[in-house]
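ARCHIVE CARD
Drawer: 12
Card no.: 0347
Subject: one protein chain, sequence and derived structure
Cross-reference: see card 0346
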Amino acid sequence: MRIDGENGTLLSPGSSAASNSSADEMIENENHSLRDRMADLEKKVHEQTDEIMCLRSTLADVLRRLSTVEGAGRLTTTREGPGRATPTKDQGGRGRHHNHDNREVFKRVASSSSSNIPGRSVSTSHIRRGTHYQSTSSLYSDGHSSSSVSPAPSPSPTQAQTHAPTPHALTTHAQYVRHTPTSPYTSPMRTAQVGALSKRWASTSDFATPNRVTHAHFPTPTNSQLTRAREAQYNPDEGVVKLYLRGRPLNLYVPTSVQETYSPTSPSVPPAAKLKLEWVYGYRGRDCRNNVFQLPTGEIVYFVAAVVVLYNVEDQMQRHYLGHTDDIKCLAMHPNKLLIATGQTAGHDRRDARSWRLNPPADHLSPEAEEWPHVRIWDSVSLNTLHIIGISDIERSVACLAFSKADGGSLLVAVDEAPDHNMSVWDWSRGERGYKLLETKCSADQVLAVDFSPVDRSTIITCGKNHISFWSYDSGMLAKRMGIFENRERPKYVTSISFTDAGNVISGDSNGNLLIWQRGGNTVYKMVRGAHDGPVFSILVQKDGAIITGGKDGQIVEWDRELERTGNTIEIPEQFGSPRVVTSGRGTQLVVGTTRNCVLEGTFTFPMRPVMQGHTEELWALAPHPGHHQFLTAGYDRTCYLWDTMAHTIVWSKDIGEPAQSAAFSNNGEIVIIGTTSGRWFVMDAETREMYSQHQDGNEPIQVVKFSPNGQYLAVGSRDNNIYVYQVSEDCRKYTRIGRCQGHSSFVTHLDWSADSQFLQSNSGDYELLFWNGGLCRQIVQTAQMRDVEWASNTCTLTFATLGIWPEGADGTDVNTCTKANHSSVLATGDDFGKVKMFNSPACHQKARCLEYSGHSSHVTALGFLHDDSRLISTGGRDTAVMQWVVSATSSSTSSQH
């Protein structure tokens, strides 16, 4: 049977030859007509593309003119004094200004221009890349921001002004078009939503607490001051080197022994000591799904921060894939169970990466390009990166990934977290960057999961807020069918999906229901109400057909093929959270990732046991034990952990009931002090966890607590600008306040005791370095007298010994923490860009050379050497990761291949 091309009637095989000939001629004529129409359409598309390019050039010229007007306005307001604009810390350079009125004018111009082409909108990619975003990390910023993450190190103000964009550069910038030959879909990023990419983590100046965020305001530096920020100035007659941070001068007194030979610009060498990542504590399960798998090697693979961890529980060994530059958001396992795909969000250093995106190289990938959101496909055995795909194609972050199954994993699907949640399908093995077969808008709402059918190569399922969608991929096109719930209750979220061996889809939703969708259809075949009390987070279909689900109610339930309960259930203890992902382990074992960032192992017969635990909220407090290979961490999740660095386990944990900001061990290691965000600090036994007492100093966070070397004093630095000093007695169990050091004009950030326990030095949020008589709580005004004082520790980031840790153009908040080794001349720093750096100590020369290490995806909040300097511990802020680095004086190969 076939269809007559003219009238649509069915012709039987017995029809006349004349009819067949007529039908063939009609079909041929129709095909010819279609080809002509397609040619005309292609011509029109090319013409419209040219018009778009002209419009973009026009818009670029408008942007240049607005920038000129804005620059003139800045000069005017600077002369007027108090009304001058405030420079912000942005991606494009220091000293630029935020002008919301001009941005609104530009948006209106863009909107009116785009209306000239019906059905098409002018891409706003050049608007996105040209926008400057305000950050609360600048102490000169009067704006409020919900979150802040430092962008990449920017050039100094002089460089930013010298290399201002030219009209030609702006035109080139505007003319860049993200183009995919096989797909008509484009998805410009909404300018208003890009701010979340600009700075996602809080920097030192934020110190945001769950209930309080305070902002400090200081005079805006002048242009001349900003110009001098590039170089330190040394006065050999007075022995003073003047360091400028955001135009504010800081006098640092050079020790007498080096005054004659000192020069701030003298060359330096990197330290001989090197770091190697040994262990990572933590897992990201609080907001990620389907990110735990068991490898054939017996290793459990998961991620936290910018590190993929391959953990062999039996051998107590970890390997680490360190190819990513920022937060890893999703993970997919290839059907061969050897290759892994991981997707990340935008990296810290997007300034240089932006220029790469405008002019991408044809033959290789540059380091700058890898700061953009992308997917890395790598070998779990060798840890070699095989392919990097999606650079310049993924706008915001990779939300979820999946390999195809029916064809052996030749395709990879990725969903972007951009406003349109674009879904792209890749032939990932074609070339170094793969080949994008197509891209389409997936959903206006959040997408939580994507997967290929194990029996139909062309079937893709996506689910998320208010939807489950069934996609058919054929001849470079995707056809979409929405799931129809008919008269069944429609869930707010479809939270999980999986496939039976017959190709049927099983979905779990926010109402706790399980639904079966028949293969090839988009209607519900069967429904199980109330499978869980709350959302169904994970669905696992085992090889024997049994189905295992995990829900927010903390239960793991086993079902048979017909979705009837077998009676096997597991109750996850509340302290570990709810099962976010359930996957198969060895034999009958299950591996579970939880919402409280724990990884558990167990069976329906034997109880679940934790193999990895971690913090769940922002992490600030770190205290290495003074005599053991242990350290303590505490964070905003109100939990304190004591970790053993040799066994890689938790010795004990305790809920202190309040978010913690700081911590310190007593000199004998028997007592631990924990400072909270409410101004309260606790005295606790380090072994029994018994609370001896609690004290209150103001209502602001306790930024730092530190015992004097002789153990007789405790200094408590607060966000209320004061340092409280206590007399310590009765084996560090009794504390009597003897005074308060007043003089800082901003919050205290760091402090150190002198080796003889007489003096204190402290830094504050407005770049002050003040000195105090610790026993009398009086400020030492004649700071020149302190030039030769020996300090017991070096945690203050603004001292003569740390002058060289500040990068060119730093604004005073880029470096959050530093610490000197106990028995060697090595200094470690942690910054807003997730970097841990090693310097020779003292790092007293500008642009001191260092060794740089990556792993954290958030600002590094604290560093600490163990008592014997064998290891360095680092903590990330909102990435909640704790990393343990081996300190080695010889070069060693890293545990990852990039």
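Annotation on reverse: The first strand starts at residue 2 and ends at 3. Residues 1-16, 74-229, 350-359, 891-898 have pLDDT under 50 and may be disordered.
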